[in-house]
Amino acid sequence: MVIDKVAWIHVVDGKVLSTRSRGKDVYYLPGGKRELGESDTATLAREVLEELTVRIDPTTARHIGTFEAQAHGHPDGVVVRMTCYTADFEGSLAPASEIAEIVWLTGSDRDSVPPVDQLIFTHLQDQGLLDG
For the Nudix hydrolase domain, which residue ranges apply (predicted)? Predict the structure, then answer.
């Protein structure tokens, strides 16, 4: 089984924006599951607006990679496929919906994120974008 998700990668000064949902003990990159027939950029814009109250500009979305790993909190063999984009946005970041907290993480925080996010952190570090 594969869980299909889209994530927003927003890096500022060597730190990547992450979120913690209510009742969760790990941080996740902003984004989520696509709805039936929804494009990557539509999913990205909808999820980021719901979670962080900002509007993604889909015309600026740039694919930076697709990553797969064991899904956190799921039985062995359940994989999450995370398609990641950078994109410009308008508005002020604020936690909304199920999001309890917004944080800025570096590579040294990799033990605080699920396996697929750890792969993304490594990719960002290899690109010289993420500190730690």
Answer: 1-129
